[in-house]
């Protein structure tokens, strides 16, 4: 298994291409401007995409997902709790909505990347796991060709935020954490759908239960590992 890391120009969001030994792959969190990088990587390596996954429904992680999914003829997969966000990726951003704040940070980042705000279209094929009823969902195992991941519901940043865990039983699993966990920090909970109490439970019961040796690839910023975060991240220390 190989993980290619691409960085989208908007908010430097991490896009991961998880590649199996047989050349099948899945794309995780293709944010605005990541699409061309993904297409190039797939073509150069003769990869065979099976799905586009998103850790949560915010636009900086989903913007290029519909175009890639449609181009590859694969579904967009995400937790049911965030599926509604694909209908209007800006409408669920509250104060960050660039239509209401044309000089704000997201509007500026999109403009700098040359993103047309009117170019969004919902993906043709969406598949969900979990439920949208507000309850915490059990783990979902996703078998996508040669790529096998465990989706762990981790609400708090958004209702459907998800950790994707590769190699659950490996000595050093890899966790694609989206905006749940960063190196030294965690995702904000003040946007629509955010919930500080749910985030505290996620940090204690979901992140805290991950193997200490697990490597963490956050949605923004440098990679880290669970042991380091448990020992030094003030947000994790506060809920233990």
Written overview of the protein:
It is a single chain. With 240 residues, this protein is an alpha/beta fold. The chain has seven helices and 14 strands. It has a single domain, classed as Ribonuclease Z/Hydroxyacylglutathione hydrolase-like (Metallo-beta-lactamase, Chain A). 23% of the residues lie in helices and 26% in strands. The strands form three sheets. The chain has a six-stranded mixed beta sheet, covered by helices on one side. Strands 7-8-9-10-13-14 form a six-stranded mixed beta sheet. It has a two-stranded antiparallel ribbon with strand order 11-12. A hairpin with a 7-residue loop joins strand 9 and strand 10. It is globular and about 45 Å long.
Write the layout of secondary structure elements.
Elements: E1 2-7, E2 14-19, E3 24-28, H1 35-45, E4 48-53, H2 59-62, H3 65-72, E5 76-79, H4 105-112, E6 126-129, E7 140-144, E8 147-153, E9 162-166, E10 174-178, E11 181-182, E12 185-186, H5 196-207, E13 215-218, E14 224-225, H6 226-232, H7 234-239
Parallel strand pairs: 3-4, 4-5, 5-6, 10-13
Antiparallel strand pairs: 1-2, 2-3, 7-8, 8-9, 9-10, 11-12, 13-14
Unreliable segments of 5+ consecutive residues: none
Which sequence of SSEs, written as H and E, runs from N to C?
EEEHEHHEHEEEEEEEHEEHH
Q: So, the CATH homologous superfamily?
A: Ribonuclease Z/Hydroxyacylglutathione hydrolase-like
Number of separate strands: 14
Count of the separate structural domains: 1
State the major sheet.
6 strands, mixed
Looking at the structure, what is the overall shape? globular
Q: Strands of the largest sheet, in order across it?
A: 1-2-3-4-5-6
Radius of gyration: 17 Å
Structural class: alpha/beta
What quaternary form is this? single chain
Distance between the termini: 33 Å
What is CATH's topology name? Answer: Metallo-beta-lactamase, Chain A
CATH class: Alpha Beta
Helix proportion = 10-25%
Strand proportion: 25-35%
Mean pLDDT: 93
Q: State the helix count.
A: 7
CATH-level-2 architecture: 4-Layer Sandwich
Protein name: Glyoxylase-like metal-dependent hydrolase (Beta-lactamase superfamily II)
InterPro entries: MBL_Glyoxalase_II, Metallo-B-lactamas, RibonucZ/Hydroxyglut_hydro
Cofactor: Zn(2+)
Domain Metallo-beta-lactamase: 14-220
